[in-house]
Write a structure and sequence with these properties.
The chain has 306 residues and is α/β, with parallel strands linked by helices. Helices cover 35% and strands 23% of the residues. The strands form 3 sheets. Strands 8-9-10-5-11-12-13 form a 7-stranded mixed sheet, with helices on both faces. The longest helix is centred in the C-terminal third of the chain and has 18 residues, at 231-248.
Length: 306
């Protein structure tokens, strides 16, 4: 269980299963000079325009497949998903249990590699990198919130929130200051020195959210963040995510079974049999990539998978 947490925050597991930390080195190249220098030829100007468009698109998924097992007994979970997520979007992913929601989230967060297909962040193909560089990218650019908070019980709330920065090589003074500010943002100023066992379920999940956002990631991926909470506490945590998305502009992709909460998000995706569809629900259909027709069971949905 803890291996997933360690992977999420930048530890690298070699095939021999020994745990190693990954240093902080930028994975992505700056595009500014290429845009500024794109003068003269039509090809250069076209390249510059493509780069500007890429800056609006945070995540692009092309032909994503994921299967488990072997040739004799293979289970196909994802079946050729194409999807685009823009900067600042708040997206809900809904669907029945076992359709691949968590698998898709793990691939978007680089916790696992696809069987086939590509995941791009800001136009960069992530999985062409080595495992070490992928872990480094994950530590710096992706925040995770799971159904279970995965807080380390022997550490206080502020120490848990500091952890991703310390793993990344940050100094303790700066990490503590940032952690205290983030805990204040989620309404836990008076609980800094409390250990997880001294916090309520909602407070524990707020600490987990603060930890996920401490390194100011490009995207927050949340897998059933309110699944273990009662209705009122779950609504409070969800309202917190809505506020953080609105105030900080962090892209959020949230897997949830709670249709009521999902309905508050501007964009909803529904997974059916390993494929993804735009699920407009009762309101106006959201923008997205539309191809083909969705099953009749999806109300006014539009397919976004291959």
């Amino acid at each position: 269980m803890l291996e997933r947490f360690y992977r999420a925050y930048g530890f690298y597991f070699k095939p021999d299963s020994r745990l190693r930390t990954v240093g902080m080195t930028p994975l992505q190249q700056s595009r500014n000079s290429r845009i500024l220098n794109a003068k003269g030829s039509k090809q250069q100007l076209h390249t510059a325009c493509c780069l500007l468009c890429t800056d609006m698109e945070l995540i692009r998924i092309e032909g994503l497949y994921k299967s488990y097992g072997n040739k004799l007994k293979k289970v196909e979970v994802l079946k050729g998903i194409d999807l685009s997520i823009s900067k600042g979007e708040m997206v809900a992913i809904v669907g029945a249990s076992g359709v691949g929601k968590s698998t898709l989230l793990h691939l978007m967060g680089t916790l696992d590699r696809p069987t086939k297909g590509d995941v791009f962040y800001r136009g960069e193909r992530v999985f062409k990198q080595t495992d070490k560089k992928v872990a480094l990218f994950r530590n710096k650019n992706v925040g995770f919130v799971f159904q279970f908070h995965h807080l380390l019980p022997e550490f206080t709330a502020v120490e848990n929130v500091m952890m991703p920065l310390l793993i990344g090589g940050g100094d303790k003074i700066t990490a503590r200051k940032m952690a205290e500010e983030m805990l204040d943002d989620v309404g836990l100023t008076g609980r800094l020195s409390h250990k997880p066992g001294e916090l309520s379920g909602g407070e524990q999940q707020r600490v987990a959210i603060a930890r996920a956002l401490i390194h100011l990631p490009d995207v927050l991926l949340a897998d059933e963040p309110t699944g273990n909470l009662d209705t009122q506490t779950g609504s409070e945590v969800f309202d917190l995510l809505l506020r953080l998305n609105r105030e900080k502009g962090i892209t959020m992709i949230i897997v949830t079974h709670n249709e009521r909460l999902a309905g508050q998000m501007k964009r909803r995706l529904k997974m059916v049999d390993g494929m993804v569809y735009e699920d407009s629900g009762p309101g106006p259909a959201p923008e997205g990539i539309y191809r083909g027709s969705a099953p009749e069971s999806i109300n006014r949905g539009s397919v976004v998978s291959g």
